[in-house]
Structures are given as C-alpha cells and as structure tokens.
Amino acid sequence: MAALETTIQRAGATGNIKATREDWLKLALETLISDGVERVRVLTLGQKLDVSRSSFYWYFKSRQDLLDQLLDYWRQTNTRFIVERARRPSATVIRGVMSIFECWVDERLFDPQLDFAIRAWARRSPAIRRALDEADEERVNAIRDMFMSHGYDEVDAFVRARVLYFMQIGYYSLELNEPMSSRLAQVASYLRSFTGQEPSPQDVEDFSRYVEKTVPRSR
C-alpha cells in the first residue's frame, strides 16, 4: 500500500461527491490485502466509505472493472519496478544486483503484502494464476537479462536470477522481520553469493547510504 500514496493523489470531496475514485481504489486495495478478494464487494466498500452504490458506478463499470484495475495497479508497481531496476544500466553486475535490491528495501517499489494478496487470489482464479505466472516469468527474465548483459551464459544467468528472485519471495513468505541493520551487515555476502564476485567497500557503502535515505528509521 505504500506505493499507492505516491502513485495517486487522494482528492478531497467536492460538491455532493463524498468519495473519489481514488478513495474506492485505496479501500479496495486495503481490503484485498487484509481480507482477500472475496471481501472486495461494492456494498461493503460503500458502507465503509459511507456512500451509496451509485457513487461506485460513477467511476467503475462493475465489480470486475474494479478488480481488473487492482490487478493492473499491481502490475504497474510490483512488476514494473523490478523490470525497470533490472534494465537500468550498470557498470558492474554488483551494481546491477544492487539496483534490484532497491525493490526489496523500498515498499514504494515492491509491496510484499500486495504481492501475497495477489498470490492468495491466484489460488481461487485460473486467470489470476496465469497473470501471476506471467509476472514471475517477466521478473525473472528481466533479472536473467541483467546477468547476461554482464557476461554470464544464459543458463547460469537464469539460475542466478531464479535464486535471487525466489529467495526474496521466500523471505517475505516466511515473514522474516529482521532489523534493517542486520540485513545491511550481510549485504556484501548476499552480493557475493548472487554474483560470484567480490563487492567493493564503495559498493556496500553506497547501498547503505541508499537505505538510510529511503527506509523509515522505524524499520
């Protein structure tokens, strides 16, 4: 949900409009994450927003239209930013992996709660399962291409990409809430493990500086 606040501006009510399109989307996303897709219902959302169903149909054609927009929002945040970071020009493979690491520490780039809400939804819907499989493949392939751009052969690059990506998904799945200080202490070892190369002190310092500027101190 952190990414939502930077992607859409929550407009104030004007005239007789009590809820904006962004209000509906924000509440629908919160509900999807906290309660699952089955609880994303027009009547229930309207009651929470204290507006009538007619307000919903001013912005959306149907409940399915709302669900389609939630899925598109997920694609345009979680998947897009991983792909963009993987494609960012990098002088070394270490720097390339560091770009992807940005997604793991900044929930404006990758929201793990939203990702797992989509994975739960996929257990109920073959169409969402296909969308999820496509997203996983797109993310892994983008990371593979980053490794290949630094001279790794295709098979090695693909395996390294899978290890990097699915390790992080597993990290979220196990809810390993390590302090950021502990994670930073291990970043050189992670970079070494994923690339087979030795990160420089400057690499580690630059990533630590990025984290300090990006991640709330409470984490």
Automatic annotation (TrEMBL):
Region described as Disordered: spans on this chain: 196-219
Record feature DNA-binding region, as residue ranges: 41-60
Residue ranges of domain HTH tetR-type in the record: 18-78
Superkingdom, natural source: Bacteria
Ranges of biased composition (kind: Basic and acidic residues): 206-219
Lineage: Bacteria, Pseudomonadati, Pseudomonadota, Alphaproteobacteria, Hyphomicrobiales
Keyword Metal-binding tagged: no
Keywords recorded for this protein, A-Z: DNA-binding
Keyword DNA damage assigned: no
Species: Mesorhizobium cantuariense
Entry-linked InterPro entries: Homeodomain-like_sf, HTH_TetR
Protein name: TetR/AcrR family transcriptional regulator
